[in-house]
Amino acid sequence: MFILAVSTQSVMTYVSQQLQRERETELLRIGQTYAQAIGAYYEATPGAIKRWPLRLEDLIEDRRQVAIKRHIREIYADPMTRQPDWVLVLASDGGITGVRSRSEVTPIRSGPQTLGQLTLVSASRYADWQFVYQPKSPRPLPLRMNEEVTKP
To answer: Which of 10, 115, 126, 147 is positioned for an S-S bond with 103, CB 3.0–4.6 A?
Structure first.
């Protein structure tokens, strides 16, 4: 009986860890999707002044141009909480630059993560991973011929 109980416990631990690993992978995929969608919204802003979305729903239906643009298909649930209850990472103007999970659970992958152009810092909990779009810094204008740079 004791051997059966110990083996059952080890199987349950393995299954639980495997489920967490799958949800963690899904969190990384969905977080990256949000960062890309926010970036697409930001870069698609008409005019010279770029704007961040004010709500996640703006990513589903971007009505700033003649034709509606969809940057994502739906508001995805956080795989760790299983609810669409993301914590929004806000810009200084109140727009959304990214999302993060509410989960306080310790991740299996705690080191830095690189997802394409998105880099996540080391984390002691899933809430530490912030899926934020970083705009490319504008290139400086080239100097015209015979112009000198003056140092202040």
So the answer is: 126
How many separate domains does the chain show?
Answer: 1
CA distances from 143 to 100, 136, 139, 149 (A): 41, 21, 12, 8
Residues 17 and 108 sit within 8 Å (Cβ to Cβ): yes
Cα separation, 58 vs 148, whole angstroms? 45
The pair of structure tokens assigned to 96 is: 């959304």
Order of strands, sheet of 96-100, starting from the edge strand that comes earlier in the sequence: 87-90, 96-100, 130-132
Share of the chain above pLDDT 90, in %: 63
Which residue range(s) make up the domain with 37? 2-132
CA 121 centroid distance within chain: 12
Return the exposure string of 19-44: e unless at least 16 CB atoms fall within 10 Å of the residue's CB, then b: ebeebbeebbebbbbbbbbbbbbbee
Average pLDDT of the residues in 15-28: 89
- The burial of 66, by beta-carbon neighbours within 10 Å (0-12 exposed, 13-18 middle, 19 or more buried), is given as exposed
Residue 42 in any domain: the answer is yes
Strand (E) or helix (H) holding 46? none
Residues contacting 149, CB < 8 A, separation 6+: 143
